[in-house]
Specification:
Blueprint (H helix, E strand, L loop, with lengths): L1 H11 L5 H4 L1 E4 L6 E7 L4 E8 L9 E12 L2 E6 L4 E11 L8 E10 L12 E3 L10
Antiparallel strand pairs: 1-2, 1-8, 2-3, 3-4, 4-5, 5-6, 6-7, 7-8
Length: about 140
């Protein structure tokens, strides 16, 4: 009984370290829209938003936003140089159900953002590219 309690306590108290958070995160969508968040190990952050027309009638539109990131427990904060802020919960097993697949992998679930709705952050989770299972393409 004590072993079970200790195991539950240890697993519920686990937090993520900055070294394991650094990497690239993507939204997995079927739309003409791509979101990539890159978290560098030295605390720099970059969003890249790409949009395009399905019929190819217009060139791709790219927008990059730069800033820094910090981690407190399982809360990731991205502070952009524009002053806008995005806060995520770090999720060790973010469901793939959002894009119609079974399973899960590490990712970020939006908690709050001051970025405009046009950026689409409220619509999609972000998954760690290196951890996405085989066959799931961003």
């Amino acid at each position: 009984m004590n072993v079970l309690f200790l195991l539950m306590l240890v697993t519920s108290a686990q937090t993520v370290s900055p070294a394991t958070i650094a990497g690239q995160y993507v939204a997995v969508t079927e739309t003409e829209y791509k979101i990539t968040l890159t978290l560098e190990s030295k605390g720099r952050a970059q969003y890249e938003f790409v949009t395009w027309e399905a019929d190819g009638s217009a060139p791709e539109q790219h927008e990059k936003l730069f800033g820094k990131w910090s981690l407190s427990g399982n809360t990731l904060t991205v502070q952009l140089s524009s002053g806008k802020v995005t806060i995520y919960s770090v999720v060790p097993c973010l469901s793939h159900q959002e894009f119609g697949e079974a399973g899960c992998s590490p990712g970020l679930r939006l908690f709050n953002t001051t970025l405009a709705d046009r950026y689409g952050l409220k619509r999609f989770g972000l998954w760690n590219v290196a951890s996405l299972k085989n066959g799931v393409q961003p």
